[in-house]
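#structure-requests
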Amino acid sequence: MPWFPRHALLRGLLTASLAALPAWCLAHARLEQAQPARRSALSSSPAQVRLRFNEAVELQYSHLSVTDSTGHTLSTAPTLAPDANTLEIALPKLSPGTYTVHYRVLSVDGHVIESAYPFTLQAPAAAP
Protein backbone atom coordinates (compact mmCIF):
# COMPACT_ATOMS: atom_id res chain seq x y z
CA MET A 1 0.00 0.00 0.00
CA PRO A 2 1.53 3.35 -1.04
CA TRP A 3 2.22 6.01 1.54
CA PHE A 4 -0.39 8.79 1.37
CA PRO A 5 0.24 12.09 3.18
CA ARG A 6 -2.47 12.90 5.70
CA HIS A 7 -3.02 16.43 4.36
CA ALA A 8 -3.61 15.09 0.85
CA LEU A 9 -6.26 12.72 2.19
CA LEU A 10 -7.94 15.52 4.14
CA ARG A 11 -7.83 17.81 1.10
CA GLY A 12 -9.44 15.09 -1.01
CA LEU A 13 -12.20 14.51 1.55
CA LEU A 14 -12.90 18.25 1.81
CA THR A 15 -13.08 18.62 -1.96
CA ALA A 16 -15.43 15.67 -2.27
CA SER A 17 -17.72 16.95 0.49
CA LEU A 18 -17.93 20.45 -1.06
CA ALA A 19 -18.74 18.95 -4.46
CA ALA A 20 -21.53 16.94 -2.87
CA LEU A 21 -23.26 20.01 -1.38
CA PRO A 22 -26.49 20.94 -3.12
CA ALA A 23 -26.26 24.14 -5.15
CA TRP A 24 -28.89 25.85 -3.00
CA CYS A 25 -26.59 25.65 0.03
CA LEU A 26 -24.13 27.93 -1.71
CA ALA A 27 -26.69 30.34 -3.18
CA HIS A 28 -27.42 33.81 -1.84
CA ALA A 29 -30.54 35.91 -1.91
CA ARG A 30 -31.43 37.38 -5.28
CA LEU A 31 -34.07 39.79 -6.46
CA GLU A 32 -36.88 37.84 -8.15
CA GLN A 33 -39.40 40.59 -8.89
CA ALA A 34 -39.47 44.37 -8.73
CA GLN A 35 -42.45 46.72 -9.04
CA PRO A 36 -41.90 49.06 -10.75
CA ALA A 37 -39.65 46.91 -12.87
CA ARG A 38 -36.05 47.74 -13.71
CA ARG A 39 -35.88 50.33 -16.55
CA SER A 40 -39.67 50.46 -16.85
CA ALA A 41 -41.46 53.47 -18.35
CA LEU A 42 -44.66 54.15 -16.42
CA SER A 43 -47.63 56.26 -17.47
CA SER A 44 -48.89 56.85 -13.91
CA SER A 45 -47.23 57.38 -10.56
CA PRO A 46 -46.71 54.12 -8.62
CA ALA A 47 -48.05 54.07 -5.06
CA GLN A 48 -45.18 51.93 -3.82
CA VAL A 49 -42.03 50.00 -4.65
CA ARG A 50 -42.14 46.24 -3.97
CA LEU A 51 -39.04 44.03 -4.12
CA ARG A 52 -39.47 40.27 -3.76
CA PHE A 53 -36.43 38.11 -3.06
CA ASN A 54 -35.99 34.36 -3.35
CA GLU A 55 -35.54 34.05 0.41
CA ALA A 56 -36.47 35.94 3.55
CA VAL A 57 -34.70 39.19 4.37
CA GLU A 58 -33.99 40.84 7.72
CA LEU A 59 -35.91 44.15 7.81
CA GLN A 60 -33.81 45.49 10.68
CA TYR A 61 -30.65 45.28 8.53
CA SER A 62 -32.17 46.17 5.17
CA HIS A 63 -32.43 49.49 3.36
CA LEU A 64 -34.73 50.55 0.54
CA SER A 65 -35.00 54.07 -0.84
CA VAL A 66 -36.09 55.97 -3.94
CA THR A 67 -34.31 59.05 -5.25
CA ASP A 68 -35.24 61.49 -8.01
CA SER A 69 -32.95 62.64 -10.83
CA THR A 70 -31.36 65.30 -8.59
CA GLY A 71 -30.46 62.70 -5.93
CA HIS A 72 -33.16 63.88 -3.50
CA THR A 73 -34.43 60.95 -1.40
CA LEU A 74 -38.21 60.56 -1.55
CA SER A 75 -38.88 57.51 0.67
CA THR A 76 -36.79 55.53 3.13
CA ALA A 77 -39.07 53.59 5.50
CA PRO A 78 -39.53 50.06 4.11
CA THR A 79 -41.84 47.49 5.60
CA LEU A 80 -41.68 43.72 5.30
CA ALA A 81 -44.59 41.83 3.74
CA PRO A 82 -46.02 38.87 5.68
CA ASP A 83 -44.07 36.42 3.48
CA ALA A 84 -40.77 37.95 4.81
CA ASN A 85 -39.37 37.84 1.25
CA THR A 86 -40.83 41.17 0.11
CA LEU A 87 -39.77 44.69 1.03
CA GLU A 88 -42.22 47.50 0.34
CA ILE A 89 -41.94 51.26 0.49
CA ALA A 90 -44.72 53.83 0.02
CA LEU A 91 -44.15 56.61 -2.49
CA PRO A 92 -45.56 60.12 -2.69
CA LYS A 93 -47.19 61.16 -5.96
CA LEU A 94 -44.31 61.42 -8.42
CA SER A 95 -43.80 63.98 -11.18
CA PRO A 96 -42.59 62.88 -14.61
CA GLY A 97 -38.89 62.06 -14.58
CA THR A 98 -36.35 59.35 -13.84
CA TYR A 99 -36.15 57.74 -10.41
CA THR A 100 -33.72 55.29 -8.88
CA VAL A 101 -34.54 52.48 -6.48
CA HIS A 102 -31.64 51.68 -4.12
CA TYR A 103 -31.64 48.57 -1.97
CA ARG A 104 -29.34 46.75 0.39
CA VAL A 105 -30.69 43.68 2.13
CA LEU A 106 -29.39 41.13 4.57
CA SER A 107 -30.88 37.74 3.80
CA VAL A 108 -31.48 35.14 6.46
CA ASP A 109 -28.46 33.19 5.14
CA GLY A 110 -26.31 36.09 6.37
CA HIS A 111 -25.31 37.53 3.00
CA VAL A 112 -25.78 41.12 1.90
CA ILE A 113 -26.87 42.06 -1.60
CA GLU A 114 -26.92 45.62 -2.82
CA SER A 115 -27.98 47.23 -6.07
CA ALA A 116 -29.91 50.05 -7.68
CA TYR A 117 -32.03 50.43 -10.78
CA PRO A 118 -33.89 53.21 -12.59
CA PHE A 119 -37.47 53.61 -13.72
CA THR A 120 -39.11 56.49 -15.55
CA LEU A 121 -42.45 58.20 -15.11
CA GLN A 122 -43.46 59.59 -18.47
CA ALA A 123 -45.21 62.89 -18.94
CA PRO A 124 -48.88 62.57 -19.91
CA ALA A 125 -49.48 62.61 -23.65
CA ALA A 126 -50.61 65.95 -25.01
CA ALA A 127 -54.22 66.14 -26.09
CA PRO A 128 -54.74 66.46 -29.89
